[in-house]
Design brief:
single chain, Zinc Finger, Delta Prime, domain 3, 3 domains, 56% helix, 9% strand, globular
Length: 343
């Protein structure tokens, strides 16, 4: 028996099996019933069922021979205008041979298409609307040009809620003969943040270590610090214990193999969970997290930036946070002085 990736093994086969997206599923079922549909745009974060819904829709429409009537492409691999002119147009111009009067082109990660390719796609969608329907999938609908958005019915997918995710993981673990503690299930949900594909992959990785899975097993697999560990870093910094906070932060990073971006994301999330924080301070801390995340994206040294962030957190303990300079303002003043000198 061939070993399978669990995300494929337990992928929904029909729209009835798609969970956590009830509003989307009900509308797609109406298209199946009428055997007609407009072009569709699926927007939402990764791992929430966009591809599963598209494939399930095709299977419900075309039956066992669905693959002959569907062209699947990933725009992140083939993102240029030649793909639209060749592969897509060649498939779109041929007629459907089944009782459903159209074929489907599913274009995953359509927000990776170049602007030129999107404009070419818009024209193709118009020219071959009688024989072909397009389903575009993207993480950010704002990256899809308005002319394409106006030609599609937009379906917005949301992260799976905790109760649905835990139910899915429980069913998978039971079918695979695993024993899961409630803490492990909750930890998997926190680590996946509503991404079912990520949660199932983590569960499969955990199953390679042991059949009885608890939070300690999940910790070994997940690059994710426990909330109390992150909270302790924030609390030490806000208490003015900069060196202790820095040492604790780097211990957590090394222990869990976290990157600087992972750390900032978890700190930002934990700030909202510390009830004792004053609302104004909470907002300032979130703003600081955003500033340092931007610096890491721009390529700054993550250890230096994380130390600076913790140092800025520690300023709140001394009540001197209002005195911290606005860096962008300092740059602006420097530019104004330079301009005055040149005059």
């Amino acid at each position: 028996m061939a070993l399978e990736i669990w995300t494929e093994k337990y992928r929904p086969k029909t729209l009835d099996q798609v969970r956590g997206q009830d509003a989307v599923s009900s509308r797609l079922k109406a298209f199946v019933k009428s055997k007609n549909m407009p072009h569709l745009l699926f927007a939402g974060p990764a791992g929430v069922g966009k591809t599963s819904a598209a494939v399930a829709l095709a299977k419900d429409l075309f039956g066992d021979n669905w693959s002959t009537a569907v062209l699947e492409l990933n725009a992140s691999d083939e993102r240029g205008i030649d793909v639209v002119r060749n592969k897509i147009k060649d498939f779109a111009r041929s007629r459907a041979i089944q009782d459903v009067p159209f074929k489907i082109i599913y274009l995953d990660e359509a927000d990776s298409l170049t602007k030129d390719a999107q404009h070419a796609l818009r024209r193709t969608m118009e020219d071959y609307a009688q024989s072909t329907r397009f389903i575009l999938s993207c993480n950010y609908s704002s990256k899809i040009i308005p002319p394409i958005q106006s030609r599609c019915a937009i379906f917005r997918f949301k992260p799976l809620p905790k109760d649905i995710m835990i139910k899915i993981l429980t069913e998978v673990s039971e079918r695979e003969g695993l024993m899961m503690t409630a803490g492990a299930l909750s930890f998997l949900y926190e680590a996946s943040e509503g991404d079912c594909r990520k949660a199932e992959n983590l569960l499969q990785a955990c199953s390679a270590i042991a059949q009885e899975i608890d939070t300690k097993i999940v910790e070994q697999v997940v690059s994710f610090a426990e909330p109390k560990e992150v909270a302790s870093v924030i609390e030490k910094a806000l208490a003015g214990k900069f060196l202790d906070a820095k040492e604790r932060l780097f211990d957590v990073m090394i222990k869990h193999g976290l990157s600087g971006m992972d750390v900032i994301a978890q700190i930002q999330k934990q700030i909202w969970n510390i009830d004792s924080l004053d609302e104004k301070i909470r907002l300032e801390l979130i703003k600081i997290c955003g500033d340092y995340e931007f610096r890491l994206v721009e390529g700054s040294n993550e250890f230096i930036q994380l130390e600076a962030m913790i140092a800025q957190f520690a300023q709140f303990a001394k009540g001197s946070w209002k005195l911290l300079p606005d860096i962008s303002l300092l740059h602006r003043r420097k530019e104004e002085k330079d301009d005055d000198r040149s005059d």
